[in-house]
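Help! Submission page says 'invalid entity' but I think these are all valid:
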Amino acid sequence: AQTVTQSQPEMSVQEAETVTLSCTYDTSESDYYLFWYKQPPSRQMILVIRQEAYKQQNATENRFSVNFQKAAKSFSLKISDSQLGDAAMYFCAYRVIQGAQKLVFGQGTRLTINP
Amino acid sequence: EAGVAQSPRYKIIEKRQSVAFWCNPISGHATLYWYQQILGQGPKLLIQFQNNGVVDDSQLPKDRFSAERLKGVDSTLKIQPAKLEDSAVYLCASSLEGGLAGTSYEQYFGPGTRLTVT
Protein backbone atom coordinates (compact mmCIF):
# COMPACT_ATOMS: atom_id res chain seq x y z
CA ALA A 1 0.00 0.00 0.00
CA GLN A 2 1.12 3.52 -0.72
CA THR A 3 2.02 5.69 2.26
CA VAL A 4 3.05 9.32 2.60
CA THR A 5 5.06 10.61 5.56
CA GLN A 6 5.61 14.19 6.66
CA SER A 7 8.07 14.18 9.54
CA GLN A 8 7.70 17.83 10.52
CA PRO A 9 4.43 18.45 12.43
CA GLU A 10 5.23 22.17 12.69
CA MET A 11 7.56 24.63 11.01
CA SER A 12 8.02 28.36 11.36
CA VAL A 13 9.82 30.94 9.25
CA GLN A 14 10.39 34.66 9.25
CA GLU A 15 8.48 36.67 6.69
CA ALA A 16 10.48 37.02 3.43
CA GLU A 17 12.69 34.05 4.30
CA THR A 18 12.77 30.61 2.66
CA VAL A 19 11.43 27.42 4.21
CA THR A 20 11.48 23.79 3.09
CA LEU A 21 8.84 21.22 4.02
CA SER A 22 9.76 17.54 3.82
CA CYS A 23 7.81 14.59 2.46
CA THR A 24 8.69 10.98 1.80
CA TYR A 25 6.50 8.30 0.28
CA ASP A 26 6.48 4.60 -0.31
CA THR A 27 5.20 2.97 -3.49
CA SER A 28 6.00 0.11 -5.84
CA GLU A 29 4.58 2.01 -8.81
CA SER A 30 6.87 3.63 -11.37
CA ASP A 31 4.38 6.18 -12.66
CA TYR A 32 2.45 8.44 -10.31
CA TYR A 33 1.74 12.03 -9.37
CA LEU A 34 2.81 13.95 -6.29
CA PHE A 35 1.11 17.06 -4.95
CA TRP A 36 1.40 19.70 -2.28
CA TYR A 37 -1.89 21.07 -0.96
CA LYS A 38 -2.41 24.04 1.32
CA GLN A 39 -5.23 24.06 3.88
CA PRO A 40 -5.86 27.43 5.57
CA PRO A 41 -8.16 27.75 8.61
CA SER A 42 -11.12 27.95 6.22
CA ARG A 43 -10.45 24.20 5.67
CA GLN A 44 -10.58 24.40 1.88
CA MET A 45 -7.77 22.38 0.30
CA ILE A 46 -5.92 24.34 -2.37
CA LEU A 47 -3.51 22.78 -4.83
CA VAL A 48 -0.09 24.43 -4.59
CA ILE A 49 2.04 22.41 -6.97
CA ARG A 50 2.08 19.10 -8.85
CA GLN A 51 4.88 16.82 -10.05
CA GLU A 52 4.64 13.97 -12.54
CA ALA A 53 7.02 11.15 -11.57
CA TYR A 54 8.15 10.58 -15.16
CA LYS A 55 9.43 14.15 -15.41
CA GLN A 56 12.97 14.72 -14.21
CA GLN A 57 12.57 18.48 -14.06
CA ASN A 58 11.38 19.82 -10.74
CA ALA A 59 8.06 21.69 -10.86
CA THR A 60 7.91 25.38 -9.98
CA GLU A 61 4.97 27.73 -9.43
CA ASN A 62 6.06 31.30 -8.72
CA ARG A 63 7.50 31.26 -5.17
CA PHE A 64 6.88 27.52 -4.75
CA SER A 65 9.20 24.83 -6.02
CA VAL A 66 9.83 21.18 -5.30
CA ASN A 67 12.88 18.96 -4.97
CA PHE A 68 11.81 15.59 -6.35
CA GLN A 69 14.21 12.71 -5.71
CA LYS A 70 12.56 9.65 -7.25
CA ALA A 71 15.16 7.10 -6.15
CA ALA A 72 15.00 8.34 -2.58
CA LYS A 73 11.19 8.70 -2.75
CA SER A 74 11.46 12.22 -1.46
CA PHE A 75 9.37 15.24 -2.43
CA SER A 76 10.08 18.46 -0.56
CA LEU A 77 8.43 21.85 -1.00
CA LYS A 78 10.41 25.06 -0.93
CA ILE A 79 8.63 28.35 -0.31
CA SER A 80 10.70 31.41 -1.15
CA ASP A 81 10.02 34.95 0.08
CA SER A 82 7.49 33.66 2.63
CA GLN A 83 4.40 35.78 3.07
CA LEU A 84 1.90 36.00 5.92
CA GLY A 85 -0.72 34.47 3.65
CA ASP A 86 1.36 31.32 3.34
CA ALA A 87 0.50 30.36 6.91
CA ALA A 88 -1.54 27.15 6.75
CA MET A 89 -1.40 23.36 7.02
CA TYR A 90 0.51 21.84 4.12
CA PHE A 91 -0.21 18.32 2.95
CA CYS A 92 1.87 16.17 0.67
CA ALA A 93 -0.22 13.76 -1.43
CA TYR A 94 0.32 10.90 -3.85
CA ARG A 95 -1.83 9.47 -6.60
CA VAL A 96 -1.36 6.60 -9.00
CA ILE A 97 -1.80 7.19 -12.72
CA GLN A 98 -3.62 3.96 -13.53
CA GLY A 99 -6.90 3.02 -11.91
CA ALA A 100 -8.60 4.80 -9.04
CA GLN A 101 -7.72 8.43 -8.68
CA LYS A 102 -7.81 8.79 -4.92
CA LEU A 103 -5.26 10.97 -3.21
CA VAL A 104 -3.20 9.50 -0.37
CA PHE A 105 -2.24 12.27 2.05
CA GLY A 106 0.49 12.70 4.62
CA GLN A 107 -0.20 13.88 8.15
CA GLY A 108 0.48 17.52 7.36
CA THR A 109 2.88 20.24 8.46
CA ARG A 110 1.63 23.38 10.15
CA LEU A 111 3.54 26.39 8.80
CA THR A 112 3.69 29.59 10.82
CA ILE A 113 4.99 32.83 9.34
CA ASN A 114 6.55 35.24 11.83
CA PRO A 115 6.27 38.94 10.90
CA GLU B 1 -17.22 29.24 -12.09
CA ALA B 2 -18.82 28.15 -8.83
CA GLY B 3 -16.78 25.85 -6.63
CA VAL B 4 -17.74 22.70 -4.78
CA ALA B 5 -20.57 23.42 -2.37
CA GLN B 6 -21.13 21.60 0.90
CA SER B 7 -23.67 21.88 3.65
CA PRO B 8 -23.95 22.19 6.52
CA ARG B 9 -20.63 23.78 7.50
CA TYR B 10 -20.94 22.61 11.08
CA LYS B 11 -22.96 19.91 12.82
CA ILE B 12 -23.08 18.78 16.43
CA ILE B 13 -24.92 15.58 17.30
CA GLU B 14 -25.01 13.05 20.11
CA LYS B 15 -23.68 9.56 19.65
CA ARG B 16 -26.13 7.08 18.14
CA GLN B 17 -27.91 9.87 16.27
CA SER B 18 -27.90 10.07 12.48
CA VAL B 19 -26.54 12.85 10.26
CA ALA B 20 -26.37 13.63 6.57
CA PHE B 21 -24.02 15.82 4.56
CA TRP B 22 -24.68 17.23 1.13
CA CYS B 23 -22.27 18.01 -1.69
CA ASN B 24 -22.79 19.76 -5.02
CA PRO B 25 -19.77 19.35 -7.29
CA ILE B 26 -18.55 21.73 -9.94
CA SER B 27 -20.82 21.61 -12.98
CA GLY B 28 -19.66 19.03 -15.49
CA HIS B 29 -17.38 17.15 -13.10
CA ALA B 30 -17.93 13.42 -13.52
CA THR B 31 -15.98 12.26 -10.49
CA LEU B 32 -16.89 12.98 -6.90
CA TYR B 33 -14.95 12.08 -3.75
CA TRP B 34 -15.77 12.07 -0.05
CA TYR B 35 -12.79 12.32 2.32
CA GLN B 36 -12.74 12.10 6.11
CA GLN B 37 -10.19 14.29 7.90
CA ILE B 38 -9.72 13.55 11.59
CA LEU B 39 -8.11 16.35 13.60
CA GLY B 40 -4.34 16.32 13.19
CA GLN B 41 -4.39 13.94 10.22
CA GLY B 42 -4.52 14.16 6.46
CA PRO B 43 -7.75 13.43 4.60
CA LYS B 44 -8.62 9.80 3.92
CA LEU B 45 -10.83 8.72 1.03
CA LEU B 46 -14.16 7.23 2.06
CA ILE B 47 -15.82 6.80 -1.32
CA GLN B 48 -15.32 7.78 -4.96
CA PHE B 49 -18.08 8.06 -7.56
CA GLN B 50 -17.73 8.18 -11.32
CA ASN B 51 -21.00 9.67 -12.55
CA ASN B 52 -23.47 7.76 -10.34
CA GLY B 53 -21.42 4.58 -10.00
CA VAL B 54 -19.10 3.69 -7.11
CA VAL B 55 -15.41 3.35 -8.09
CA ASP B 56 -13.86 2.84 -4.65
CA ASP B 57 -15.56 2.42 -1.27
CA SER B 58 -12.97 0.15 0.30
CA GLN B 59 -12.47 2.42 3.34
CA LEU B 60 -16.12 3.26 3.93
CA PRO B 61 -17.43 1.74 7.21
CA LYS B 62 -20.45 0.26 5.54
CA ASP B 63 -22.15 -0.79 8.76
CA ARG B 64 -22.82 2.86 9.59
CA PHE B 65 -21.86 5.00 6.58
CA SER B 66 -23.72 5.21 3.30
CA ALA B 67 -23.45 7.49 0.29
CA GLU B 68 -25.33 8.04 -2.90
CA ARG B 69 -25.01 10.19 -5.96
CA LEU B 70 -28.31 10.41 -7.70
CA LYS B 71 -28.31 11.39 -11.38
CA GLY B 72 -24.55 11.73 -11.28
CA VAL B 73 -24.61 15.23 -9.78
CA ASP B 74 -25.27 15.94 -6.09
CA SER B 75 -24.18 13.50 -3.43
CA THR B 76 -25.24 12.74 0.13
CA LEU B 77 -23.12 11.06 2.80
CA LYS B 78 -24.98 9.62 5.79
CA ILE B 79 -23.84 8.28 9.14
CA GLN B 80 -26.24 6.16 11.19
CA PRO B 81 -25.67 5.67 14.06
CA ALA B 82 -22.81 8.07 14.78
CA LYS B 83 -19.93 7.20 17.10
CA LEU B 84 -17.57 9.50 18.97
CA GLU B 85 -14.73 8.56 16.60
CA ASP B 86 -16.72 9.93 13.64
CA SER B 87 -15.90 13.47 14.81
CA ALA B 88 -14.00 14.90 11.85
CA VAL B 89 -14.17 17.22 8.87
CA TYR B 90 -15.87 15.67 5.88
CA LEU B 91 -14.50 17.01 2.62
CA CYS B 92 -16.11 16.65 -0.77
CA ALA B 93 -14.05 17.01 -3.93
CA SER B 94 -14.75 16.73 -7.64
CA SER B 95 -12.76 16.43 -10.83
CA LEU B 96 -13.50 16.46 -14.52
CA GLU B 97 -12.74 12.81 -15.17
CA GLY B 98 -11.04 10.36 -12.86
CA GLY B 99 -10.98 7.15 -14.83
CA LEU B 100 -8.80 7.82 -17.83
CA ALA B 101 -5.27 6.44 -17.63
CA GLY B 102 -2.64 9.10 -17.78
CA THR B 103 -4.98 11.98 -17.08
CA SER B 104 -4.16 14.41 -14.35
CA TYR B 105 -7.32 16.28 -13.62
CA GLU B 106 -7.13 18.40 -10.52
CA GLN B 107 -9.43 17.61 -7.62
CA TYR B 108 -11.28 20.68 -6.39
CA PHE B 109 -12.29 20.62 -2.75
CA GLY B 110 -15.26 22.10 -0.97
CA PRO B 111 -15.06 23.91 2.38
CA GLY B 112 -15.94 20.78 4.33
CA THR B 113 -18.41 19.96 7.09
CA ARG B 114 -17.08 19.82 10.63
CA LEU B 115 -18.91 17.11 12.58
CA THR B 116 -18.73 16.89 16.35
CA VAL B 117 -20.20 13.83 18.03
CA THR B 118 -20.75 14.19 21.79
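Support: the input was valid. A stray whitespace character was the problem, and the output above is from the cleaned input. The CA atoms of residues 4 and 25 of chain B lie 5 Å apart.
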